[in-house]
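Hey,

Quick one before I head out. I ran the complex with flavin-adenine dinucleotide overnight. Inputs first:
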Amino acid sequence: MPVETAPPPPHQNESAFPRLDEEDLECLRAIACCQQYQDGDIVFRAGDPDIDFFVVESGALEILNPTANNAHVVTHGPGEFAGDIDLLTRRPVIVTAVAQGRTRLLRVAGDRLRDLLNKVPRISERLMVAFQMRRELLSKAGIAGLKVVGPGKCRDTTVVREFLHKNFVPFTWYDSASDEGRAAMTEWGSPRKSPVIECGGGKLLINPTLRELAKGAGVWRHCPDQTADLVVIGAGPAGMAAAVYGASEGLDTIVLDRLGPGGQAAGSSRIENFIGFPAGLSGADLAVRGVLQMLKFGAKMVAPVSVDRLEAGKKPGDPLSLHLDCGATLHANAVLVATGVGWRKLVAEGAERYERAGIYYACTAVEALLHADQDVAVVGAGNSAGQAAMYLATCCRGRRVHMLVRSTLGPAMSDYLVKRIRSTSNIEVHEGVEVTAVRGGRQIDEVELKSRDNPELRKTLPLGAVFVFIGAEPHVGFLPDSVARDNLGYLLTGADAVATGRWPLKDREPCPLETTLPGLLAAGDVRSASTKRVGFAVGDGSLAITCVHRLRTTQSQ
Ligand SMILES: Cc1cc2nc3c(=O)[nH]c(=O)nc-3n(C[C@H](O)[C@H](O)[C@H](O)COP(=O)(O)OP(=O)(O)OC[C@H]3O[C@@H](n4cnc5c(N)ncnc54)[C@H](O)[C@@H]3O)c2cc1C
């Protein structure tokens, strides 16, 4: 059950609630208008989209959390300001601000603030840190944002929770079997279907599609139809890095993702090999930081939107057309495919039936904690499987984690992970086995394994969930055949593209990340011969921008 606690008062959180000094205020006054409020006036209300930035000049501004019965969150005094990451995402705010006494505020329009963040690093640094910390504090306080009620081990509820988690929409989930869940359902007139999501202002969504949910949560604005210098497909590490570099170097950049930011990396509980983070950082943290950075520089992020089909122009060098599942078609001279890979599905009797309701292809807090009191299995022997096993074993010490490996643990995994797994007492490694069946009723009860050496040798393990990381396939199905792939389906670029004999232009070579379709670049996991790691994807995404500049130069000649 969530615990209702207010974040510590401002003086204990100087980074989250800094006081701007006179120099900062002078800078803001140049772009602000001054507004007077009386005691009790609402300055902004939870649910208002795209709010402006407010700084207290005199008086006070109280912040209330309507999801927790308008609990007091904090009071901003002179020199302090309201707002968090929604000033960058432009999504509806999750708190309400009320003037206390006669109050004078500086009001800065959202787009002018975003412009200032790029121009004045000293203000940018303090605001960006404060925005992120405030959101963290509010989320940790327990009750914030949307209310979700649905059965825990149900596919539709998991999809809703995963989507909100991935798009860092604050929400509180109640199992429909819990007292709070039952009370909420009764209050909402006992809808026959679930999950039910209360989006604020009394608006209810009942078992919504992803797009309806995205609209209700303020994540989705509209189907993009504008032209851009660069369209990036995929907001994993490669796509986000490209957007940060592209937008910061003045390219009008739009990023499309079918789910939300972070890509596979968002499914990692702790990334320990990404330079600059010696203590590691969670994939969710990397996603929030990455997306805020690209929004700060002016890139646009659209999700959930899938590129259904990419079409080449009539002749080489003509703009490419992207047909989106929301109905629009975008045209661009430079497109970066950063769509990464998807996990191969577990082929075993019963596996499909339990997908997202016991069989998972990700391991974030959403899935891991659902089965906190049950033994679980991880299938696979790569780094992703290893990380998942460690996370599942350490987040819930009382459970046993079975690692199911077809051959032996080691060759496909970083040495440090192998050592940790071997020395973790509640992980048991089963080598030389394959999953043949997943059985149960409404939920998984047991998994059957067979020995690879002796297929007659079978055993069953009583388990509540199976986490699958067994090899990847590139997301390239939306690309035309003119884009050359290697024998595993990964996209060939640069010299490898030329070597296929299918590069169509005589007057120039492709740039290192350009595919056999001029103007179409590929970066990250989806690219043939790339190293499938966060750091490499980030490097690839950044290199793509050098290619875009080269393309623009040749296209303008
Ligand atoms: C559980 C897990 C843990 C990991 N841990 C580590 C680690 O600790 N260290 C490390 O270095 N690496 C780790 N990795 C690997 C790392 O996450 C990947 O190498 C990296 O995310 C690849 O980045 P990418 O941007 O190329 O692709 P991805 O991260 O796969 O992102 C691709 C994006 O494209 C989107 N997309 C796909 N098709 C479409 C379409 N048609 N239209 C719109 N959008 C589309 C997807 O939704 C996705 O968001 C881990 C991977 C997993 C799964």
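DSSP finds 14 helices and 27 strands in the chain.

Talk tomorrow,
K.
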